[in-house]
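Quick one:
INPUT:
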């Protein structure tokens, strides 16, 4: 329940630095292409205007009774072609602009990796491990996953998708640190939020589901994955109790001493 089989894949961890560099290079490529097209258009327009100016001068000379002749520059025409030179200048300009953009983007990515949050207001070790069956499309159990609830924390700041999130006044985040182990020979996806519910203030008639999660969490074959789930609750809430288990299976209650 909450688990989907995937085809065999090779584990590969892609670093944030590589992702950031790829994004920067992609943006630079689009920027360079745009500037190059504009530069080509400018060169073509300039050459066309020069040609039209020469034609008008020739036509004016003919109207005034002077013989039509080619327009001659007052200086010796250079032996090197002008178009390739202008294009080379444009390419060099794009290169230097791109280097500056990469430098600025690199500074931004480094500063983004240093985001910090304040320490937990309270925490407690849980260390409870649960085993859930992994079934195929026919409902047959082919392996199992281990679901370890390591620790519970109360925080007023957390990081979500690389950005700091702060609880509003009177609220706080209850965060559970999890470790999921996949003993199967293929990668799987699991909805970690499906296995935990929370009751507050002794009200076990109503159970809260996690609003903070990274689901679906992909766990590669024969590996573990660290993740977390969380509940926004009131600072005044007490008697916190977790209920862990499959939606249609047996569940275990864990009181939190926070």
């Amino acid at each position: 329940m909450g688990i989907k089989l995937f085809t065999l894949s090779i584990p590969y961890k892609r670093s944030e630095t590589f992702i950031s560099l790829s994004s920067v290079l992609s943006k630079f490529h689009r920027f360079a292409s745009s500037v190059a097209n504009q530069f080509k258009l400018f060169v073509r327009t300039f050459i066309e205007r020069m040609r039209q100016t020469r034609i008008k001068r020739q036509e004016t000379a003919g109207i005034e009774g002077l013989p039509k002749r080619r327009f001659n520059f007052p200086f010796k025409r250079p032996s090197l072609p002008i178009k390739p030179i202008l294009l080379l200048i444009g390419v060099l300009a794009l290169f230097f602009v791109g280097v500056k953009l990469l430098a600025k983007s690199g500074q931004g990515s480094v500063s983004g990796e240093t985001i910090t949050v304040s320490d937990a207001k309270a925490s407690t070790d849980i260390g409870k491990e649960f085993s859930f069956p992994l079934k195929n499309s026919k409902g047959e159990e082919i392996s199992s996953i281990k679901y370890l609830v390591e620790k519970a924390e109360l925080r007023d700041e957390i990081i979500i998708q690389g950005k700091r999130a702060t609880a509003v006044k009177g609220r706080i985040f209850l965060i559970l640190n999890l470790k999921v182990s996949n003993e199967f020979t293929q990668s799987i996806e699991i909805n970690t939020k499906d296995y935990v519910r929370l009751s507050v203030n002794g009200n076990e008639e109503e159970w809260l589901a996690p609003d903070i999660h990274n689901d679906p969490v992909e766990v590669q074959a024969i590996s573990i994955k660290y993740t977390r789930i969380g509940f926004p609750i009131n600072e005044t809430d007490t008697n916190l109790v977790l209920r862990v288990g499959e939606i249609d299976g047996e569940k275990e209650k864990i009181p939190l001493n926070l």
